Amino acid sequence: MTGHEDASWSYSRARSVLEAVMGAALEAVDPAAAVQRYLRRERNRLLVGDQAYDLGQIGRVVIVGAGKAGAPMAQAAESVLGDRLDEGLVVVKAGHTLPTHQVELVEAGHPIPDERGLRGSRRIQELVSGLGADDLVLCLMSGGGSALLTYPSEGITLADLQQVTDGLLRAGATINEVNAVRKHLERLKGGGLARAAHPSRVASLMLSDVVGDPLDVIASGPTVPDPTTYAEAWSVMQRFGLDESAPASIRQRLQAGMAGEPPETLKTGDPVMRRVQNQIVGSNALAADAAAGEATAQGLNSVVLTTYLQGEAREVGRVLAALAHELVLRDGPVPRPACLILGGETTVTVRGDGKGGRNQEMALAAALALAGLPNALVACLATDGTDGPTDAAGAVVDGRTLAQARERGVDLQAGLARNDAYHVLDALGLLLKIGPTRTNVNDLAFVLAW
Question: Model's pTM, two decimal places?
Fold first, then answer.
């Protein structure tokens, strides 16, 4: 390949290739396939990763879990366990159910927890709390599990949790920061599910939606020791100005925890963890690598620049546009035709009253910075198919977007200022509307140049 423009490439070809690349990324993190790679049954042996369980020595086998990928994960686990599965309950995002046989799927709200999630989470605790040392809990966790597996600590209401969660998200808190607070306000997070299930064995299969795949942050770590403390949770509240405006029950809980009562979340070395196995079955890195492989097969010079993409969405969007300029004007960091892939999770500090999500805001900011640049496009994708509280997964923009917007009387800058990326990009037909994918491994951004 040369670093010069290839006449065989065009915008329409680039869009077609982009669809293939995104499809490969999503296929690589298909939840059912991910579960079946790590969960196998050989007659009376159940293999979870490299650990074997003798089903002849196991009493009851139950499935519990929460997350956007819960339905296909439950289907796959059912097919593997067959007649050895006794019961199951998994909480999924509304609209994300699939047919199951023995595992009951409960729909609930996301990203703000709701009463349905509370009822489902309470039932999960009741289910695992009745198990004994000979029983096995197969826990299926995926992105969205933090909001869906919601069971407030004593004295805290669901409305209290909703207010704090919404406040943190609107203030631009990272998922790590939000989850540090959640773990100290609820019963099942921060190792709480493992505690509730003790002394039964617990094997947790986790589809990671967190940058760097820290086990304790995925779905707020229901079966994982928690390295954060009440003091750190309170520090997050202070950092985002919620220490005075939060409900009294939450302020009292965190302050009491800092004083030593109630006790801390589950920590490393706790005897409970001797009977718990945690296994990641899919991640953003896996999706990014698959995307790069498909891009190469399509004739592009491809590279995964990072799977640790973080920061304010609109600022990251400008960085994506800068990379596009580098490709087109300086033939780097790889020669054209090229595809740069970045994975991670950005945040949005909400200042306006518009509608959108972090990927749409990232794309909108990129569109403004791309103005006039030929032979390049930027795409931002939420792998779960639903970016923020919208029906779009993200958007695709290029150097023509600003001019097209002006021709149609659409003000991109005003849309960005009021966090209204959805309506602005929808008016231009640039949104990616692929429907729920029933997986979730964070976000992917693509910079294509030819």
Answer: 0.86
